[in-house]
Structure formats: structure tokens, C-alpha cells
Amino acid sequence: MNKSNKKNITQFAEFMHDIYEKHSKKEGWKTQKKTRVPFVKLPKENKAVMIKVAETIINAFGGCTACYGKGFGTQTAYAHYKADFIGDKSWYEKYPTISFCKCERGKELMRLWHENEKIIIEKYEKKIKNTFDSLMSIC
Q1: Are 101 and 62 contacting, i.e. CB atoms less than 8 angstroms apart?
Q2: Which of 13, 28, 36, 70 has minimal Cβ neighbours within 10 Å of its Cβ?
Q3: pTM of the full structure
């Protein structure tokens, strides 16, 4: 596990501890006196358990705290073009985008995406060449 991932897991464990203590108090549930402290002051054993729980949850979602196993993110940008001469109409266009995470799943998805792009481009290049060749044979 790299330093960044370990830091994220520890931060998540701290967040879960704080939330657990907060909600326990709201619900009238008395937690152990030695655990009613900030995360950094927790007994070593309790802290280790919270970190293991956080790690298990994060790994259940792909082990990545950026995309939680999805590997990508999508976004749609919109452009509004205004009429710039008499008789012209304004219009909207959608520009969907995809970005890949830097995790292993994201890298694999990016590789597959580019591989698929090459196949599509080769297919259309063949069609264009065949159309061009057939047109040239007519002349």
C-alpha cells in the first residue's frame, strides 16, 4: 500500500470514528470512555481496528478513494451559439466527456477505450478507401 493510499485510509478511519461517536451520543448510546477521544488519542488496538474497517470498505469499492472502483468520470458541457446575422438561429450543443482515473482500473479502461477507437478508425478508413477505389474504377 502506498503512502497516499495509507493516508486516505487513515483519514477515512478517523472520519468514521468521529461520525460513530457523534451519532452514538445523539442516540443516547454510551461508547467506552477510552474511545470517547479524538482519533489520534484512541488506544492503539481501537485505532488499528478502525483502520482495518476503513481499508475493507475502500477495497470493497475497488481500492481507489478517487473513483471507488468505477475507473472513470463523465461530464457534459453545453455550448450556446447565438444568432449572428438576420435569419440565423441560435442553437445548443452538448459535449459529453469522459476522464479516466489514475488507478489500475482507470488505466485498463483507458487502454480498452483507445484500442476500440483504433478499431473504429481502421474500419472507417477501410470504408473510405473502398469507396474511393470504386469511384476511381468508374472514371
Answers
A1: no
A2: 28
A3: 0.50
For the segment 52-79, what is each residue's pLDDT rounded down to a tens digit? 999 888 877 777 878 878 888 888 888 8
- Report how far residue 47's alpha carbon sits from residue 43's, in angstroms, rounded to the nearest whole number: 6
**CB hemisphere CA count around 62 (13 angstroms):** 15
User: Nine-digit cell at 21?
Assistant: 461517536
Characterize 38-53 residue by residue with b for buried, 16 or more Cβ atoms within 10 angstroms of its Cβ, and e for exposed.
ebeebeeeebeebbee
Cell of 47: 485505532
Query: What residue type is assigned to position 1 of the chain?
Result: M
As a whole number of angstroms, the distance between CA 9 and CA 129 comes to: 54
Rounded Cα gap, residues 64 and 61, in angstroms: 7
Q: In the numeric block, which cell numbers belong to residue 135?
A: 469511384
